[in-house]
Amino acid sequence: LSEGPAPLGRLVAELSRLPGIGQRTAQRLAFHLLRADDEEARALAAAILEMKEKVGLCEVCFNLAEGPRCRICEDPRRDTTVICVVEEPADVIPIERTHEYRGLYHVLGGALSPIDGVDASDLKIAELLRRVGDGGVREVILATNPTTTGEATALHIAEQLRGQATVTRLASGLPIGADLEHADEVTLGNAFTGRRTLE
Amino acid sequence: LSEGPAPLGRLVAELSRLPGIGQRTAQRLAFHLLRADDEEARALAAAILEMKEKVGLCEVCFNLAEGPRCRICEDPRRDTTVICVVEEPADVIPIERTHEYRGLYHVLGGALSPIDGVDASDLKIAELLRRVGDGGVREVILATNPTTTGEATALHIAEQLRGQATVTRLASGLPIGADLEHADEVTLGNAFTGRRTLE
Questions:
Q1: What does the buried/exposed string (b/e) look like for A151-163 if buried means 16 or more CB atoms within 10 Å of the residue's CB?
Q2: pLDDT for residue B15 is more than 90
Q3: pLDDT value of position B158
Q4: pLDDT tens sequence across A169-198
């Protein structure tokens, strides 16, 4: 943005580094912040800094935490006999929103992907095995993504946990609102394999 | 984002206030910043604060400026006999990028819009008349948007400037790459009205 004042150009450059934010969107956002109240712009800058300063990973489950442990690990009402294994901290949020799950989590920090150089030692798999080995865990729900890497990760963990706890995997099938005509064959195949008896 | 740590929720809330950034995008950006280097997040926060602190409006043309006057008004190579009138500071950038224009600008700060309660006194129209009245201006190019409010603003200013300078309006017609079949009738009408003789 060589045509404008340098500080505006620097802001556009910084905003452009964000994922999915191109040059034009960055420019639009920068102009919005320029016109916005000082209070709004300062609040955004402060929120970025505060988040970086205060948010870390839970020492037990590696979910996001403000202190040493996350809210879920610290909540005495959660069922400590069930652990739901997810790839990223962001995956915890949609699961919590379902209000269907009252157990604990374990965030791996990614999925096995030999192509990207991610092997078991890069994920919090050893930490999961230790948690289960410490006893008291009845079920481990593998909620890694239904992708090649997520499936490989789920299979790897299931093998490691054999005999130590019931290991389950989230159901795969047609999402609500989908239509058969446009469903991909893998999803449709999974929907057939996982079909249930209606009472 | 009540499921995550409070500072993450606050950042998502602040990002959601940006135009075109919904809850999901805000969440994706917040998670990106969480995973990003401290340096990247700090640079973004600093760029926001620096821009708000240092960028104001030029005292002559009301374009963005780092000091009392903008770069264009301070550039001795610009043609001071021509003023291009635009609605917003953001409109200066695409015009500068054409490298077709070497005159000065005047940024109105909007367009006349009785419905939105914007009248002539809300725009920098008196300031434009004063600049032209001070003499030395040969041509005023009205480059407000080709919209109802932009056209109304252009007509209003043209009336005020009658007899004081040559007043021109940017050409309206088919954009490069357009096809006739999908052109709207107003654009196509303007393209006919503004047709040129080919040599």
A1: bebbebbeeebee
A2: yes
A3: 94
A4: 888 888 888 787 888 888 888 888 888 766
Chain A residues touching B58 at Cβ < 8 A: none
CB contact under 8 A, B13 and A50: no
Q: Do B42 and A20 touch (CB under 8 A)?
A: no
Whether A90 contacts B27, CB under 8 Å? yes
Stronger pLDDT, B1 or B36, i.e. the higher one: B36
DSSP state of A36: S
* Global confidence as pTM: 0.75
Kindly indicate the confidence band of residue B52, based on its pLDDT and cuts at 50, 70 and 90: very high
Q: Is A7 close to B90, i.e. CB distance below 8 A?
A: no
DSSP readout, A75-91?
-TTSEEEEEEEESSGGG
